[in-house]
Amino acid sequence: MRWFRFAVFISIVTVLQASLVDIVAVTTANIKPDLLLILLVFFAIYCNTSEAIVTSFTIGFAADIIGPAMGPHTISFGLFGTALAYLHRLIAIKKIPHQSLAIFIVGFFAGVLAHFLSLLRGQPTATNIYAVVFGSSLYSSLVGPFLFLLSAWWMRIKRRKT
Amino acid sequence: MARKQIRVSRRMLFTWFMLAGFILLFAPQKLTSKFQLAFAHLFRFPLSIGRNISLSARVQQPLRDVVSRREYNKIQNYLANVEQELNQKHLKLKKLSGYDRLYSLEGAKLVMADVSTDAIDALHAELIINRGHIDGLAVGQFVLGDNSIIGTISELSSRTARVKLFTDPTSKIAVKIEKLNIDRIMQGSGNYSAKIPLVSKEHDIKAGDRVYARKEPGLLDAPMIIAKVAKCKQDDENPSVWDITVEPACNIEILNDVAVIIMNPASPNGWMNPQK
User: Fold this and answer.
1) pTM summary value
2) Which residues, in sequence order, are CB contacts of A84 under 8 Å at separation 6+?
3) B interface mutation test: which of A10, A22, A28 has the most B CBs within 10 A?
């Protein structure tokens, strides 16, 4: 794992997520793809389990940095990223539809968990939170596999087809 | 042997990271927000560039020979504030109480700040600006955007501050609706709207009516425009009151810079033209 490249990549993507991704936001609920979620799934699939644990929590921390509060995404991304890394040891997630499905499921459940953790912390909630989480996960799952190509190139990771 | 060590460290890694996550979750917001403000300060240039590109992609080009909607709103807000100042002046003259201040921002210092980044959705509505307590900012101070109040300072670091917009679900600001002399608390409802509850149906309220932030000692010397009534319908739960939805008096989405109102600054030469 090239950790310096990883740090630079996460910093760039975090800045993009906080500023530029608004361009592609859709609907009045401002639904946009979650680039950090896509990277979470990418590293959980293409790294070994130890690296996946570190990257999952780090990406969660980055998501919290640009979010309303610290903690919820660190925990939810860390938990689901680690779970996906362990799952990947049993079931290979190599095909694009499977990767999309993985992004959608991880995005939805991590979003719901982050929402409940935010409630624990006393953060406000919206009436349409599940619709927003669903929409964001769906959007991310559609664009995610394409971003995998860029991520693999930057991280010098070889994507093998099975 | 080496594999065994990795297995142990894998569990330990997970445990320690989870522990760190829970510490972050339950640590006071005042401490943890320093990470967010530090990030916003460190990456202020790329964030600002990204936001500007995002804005330019979203904002449509204005028609020729027509004042842009933003400019129109800005002038309308200025007019509303001047009208309100005039009303205040009349009241003061009537009372003959000898107040020495006639204008809402007289004696106030306006600290101009660039918007580094924003986060506006159903859950929260806030801006990060590139001014902090070094510039004289303090929690609770009102923030102007295009001559209308848009929110208050909620968190601070030395060179960065977080502005909680009045549309944030946790925001509560005392307001009055145009012509009605009653105080109400306006509650944010996410995205670009807020609600004003408990206004009796006896009052005549219609869409487009202006809403003013009430004056607050030490923070705002006279009411200033904050929003406009977007929708006014009968409340479903309590038919005797209105369900009033308001929207910001300016387009917060396209704001590049804001001004923080510092009342009674230490330096007497702080007055700046609000049109700037």
Assistant:
1) 0.72
2) A40, A41, A44, A45, A52, A93, A102, A106
3) A22
